[in-house]
Amino acid sequence: MKSVVERIQSYRIAKGKRVRHFVISPPPELRLQNLDDLLGLFKKAYALATSKGADGGLVIFHPYRLREDKKSELRAIAGKLDDWMPGKFHLWKTLVKLPNWREYVYFSPHFHVLATCDCREQFSSADDGQDGWIWKGISELRTAEAVLKCSMYLLSHAGILSQKSQPTRHAIRWFGGLAGCNWSFKLAPDWVRACVLKQSAGVVDDFQDREGVDPTACRVCGGVLISISEAPDYWDRFEGEPKRILRNTYLWWKGAIPPPGREFSESEVLAYLSPKPTHKPSILSHRDPDYRGVHRHKWVATRDCNGKRVGPWYCRGCSKVLDKEIPRGVLDTVDHRRWFWSHPQKSLWDYGKLSDPRYSGLGDRI
């Protein structure tokens, strides 16, 4: 749902448009024989929306409407199902739980359109179009929250277009300026995307809180899910194997150890997450919050009183001995960095200050 808000809001802001909600209904006497006849109605809905001044939008197909004489009965049933009461669409939420749901609806195919149009465009609330098609204006969606609420309600009972002999078709479609070939959230300017992301993040969170939806709940046990970036704050609560898996998964996410291939079994993946250290024990540096598996060597050498080197080059931090010769005057301290699997395009060593290609062998892998 967040993608719908981002796409419509980014187009609205970038192009200076209004967003309005309409309903397009075909003639009641229209007979649909197969899925192809139903799909043909989408093109008619596009043409009618365009003729009314819409330059693009989202079309959602609904096959049914609630029977007016059954709504009070449905509300009474919804009152008994406390877990389905929160929110705006409790009637449709209750309906999907009933085995005899067809008794509460009747077949009446129609299309809901979230259309973008010019700010000066005016529409009548109801209009009988050509060939018996009915165009009805519902409301103007002035904010990101209004777009979210409307789209969530419409998608709660959208129809699924399927037939046994054919694959399932899309029940929601973009057209005009908002079609996939013309617009996407990634095409919006940076400042527009930043504005929309700020809007949509708060709107989605507030809406989920009101609707009782917890996006961070575990599907198995219902517990609260914690981002893997916060794992160091929690792994001390565990012991043994769970702690090892949690810690190594965090290292994998940070890029300090290479990821396993997809062809590995689960047991091999768990074993691969605990490789033997090839350099120093993988101890996270708490002083460096942006630690990403990077290790720096400080190459130094023992010298006599005259400044002449009398011993091999070695790393001040890990005592690794370098079996290469560094001529005096080139660089006494070689500071280079190793990039782990998080940077596969830089899997070789990055030599920092040592730019002379004659000494490129200094960075042999550990």
Detailed description of the structure:
This protein has 366 residues and is an alpha+beta fold. The chain folds into 3 domains: 2-211, no CATH class; 230-291, no CATH class; 294-366, no CATH class. Helix 1 (2-15) packs across helix 5, helix 1 packs antiparallel against helix 6 (190-211) and helix 5 (144-155) crosses helix 6. 28% of the residues lie in helices and 17% in strands. It has 8 helices and 11 strands. Strand 4 and strand 5 (134-140) form a beta hairpin. The protein has a 6-stranded antiparallel β-sheet, with helices on both faces. It has a 3-stranded antiparallel β-sheet with strand order 9-10-11, with no helix packed on it. The chain has a two-stranded antiparallel sheet with strand order 6-7.
Topology of this protein?
Blueprint (H helix, E strand, L loop, with lengths): L1 H14 L2 E8 L9 H17 L4 E11 L4 H10 L9 H6 L9 E13 L8 E3 L5 E7 L3 H12 L5 E3 L2 E4 L2 E5 L13 H22 L29 H14 L11 H7 L26 E2 L12 E3 L5 E2 L44
Percent range for helical residues?
A: 25-40%
**What characterizes the major β-sheet?**
6 strands, antiparallel
State the total count of DSSP E strands: 11
SSE topology string: HEHEHHEEEHEEEHHHEEE
Keywords:
6-stranded antiparallel β-sheet; alpha+beta; 8 helices; 3-stranded antiparallel β-sheet; single chain; elongated; 366 residues; disordered C terminus
